């Protein structure tokens, strides 16, 4: 893409060293509900794991797209560990004219292996290749593992906070 056009950025399959990032589909809901079922995943972000029917409804909303698709794209992927074929987490990007806000989550059984890092670095590189002028993530100040992922993806912490989370950003 020669110019950055957020309304034309759509999730495509991405391949990392150990992970395949599959564009989100409705049939991912059962698998990801199991992968993300540990309440400990919500220690820093609040809420609780969604059961499969609620996650499927959420995926339906995401796949329907944003309220204004002329200025925003929602790109969502399921992380699949190539070695076992297991769905182990998700990454997402909300793409707007100002850049993209990114987020990641890896299920508890697969944490500590660098998978979130691999996925976030891959996602950030893909967005930069498409001309994103900025990348942003919000990380709880006590979530050191997630801060390390943000740093690996090329983001730096700012002094801005939103809902108790520190804003991390990269500007091209």
Explained architecture:
The protein is of the alpha+beta class. The chain has one domain (6-171): Aminopeptidase. It has helices at residues 29-35, 52-64, 115-129, 144-152; strands at 14-15, 19-23, 73-81, 87-96, 99-106, 134-139, 156-162, 165-171. It has an 8-stranded mixed beta sheet, with helices on both faces. Helix 1 packs across helix 2 (52-64) and helix 3 (115-129) runs parallel beside helix 4. The model has no long low-confidence stretch (mean pLDDT 95).
Distance between the termini: 16 Å
Largest sheet: 8 strands, mixed
If you average the pLDDT, what whole number results?
95
Q: What are the segments in which pLDDT stays under 50 over at least 5 consecutive residues?
A: none
* Total beta strands: 8
The succession of helices and strands, N to C, reads: EEHHEEEHEHEE
Summarize the structure.
This protein has 172 residues and is α+β, with helices and mostly antiparallel strands.
Keywords:
single chain; 172 residues; alpha+beta; Aminopeptidase; 8-stranded mixed β-sheet; 26% helix
């Amino acid at each position: 893409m020669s110019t950055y056009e957020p309304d034309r950025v759509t999730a495509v399959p991405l391949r990392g060293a150990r992970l395949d990032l599959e564009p989100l589909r409705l049939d991912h809901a059962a698998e990801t509900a199991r992968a993300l079922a540990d309440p400990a995943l919500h220690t820093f972000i609040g809420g609780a794991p969604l059961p499969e029917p609620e996650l499927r409804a959420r995926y339906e909303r995401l796949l329907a797209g944003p309220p204004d698709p002329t200025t925003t794209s929602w790109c969502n992927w399921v992380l699949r560990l190539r070695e076992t074929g297991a769905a182990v987490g998700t990454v997402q990007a909300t793409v707007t004219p100002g850049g993209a806000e990114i987020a990641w989550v890896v299920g508890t059984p697969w944490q500590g292996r660098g998978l979130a890092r691999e996925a976030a670095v891959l996602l950030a590189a893909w967005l930069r290749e498409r001309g994103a002028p900025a990348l942003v993530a919000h990380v709880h100040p006590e979530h050191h593992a997630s801060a390390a992922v943000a740093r690996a993806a090329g983001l730096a912490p700012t002094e801005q906070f939103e809902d108790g989370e520190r804003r991390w950003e990269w500007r091209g």
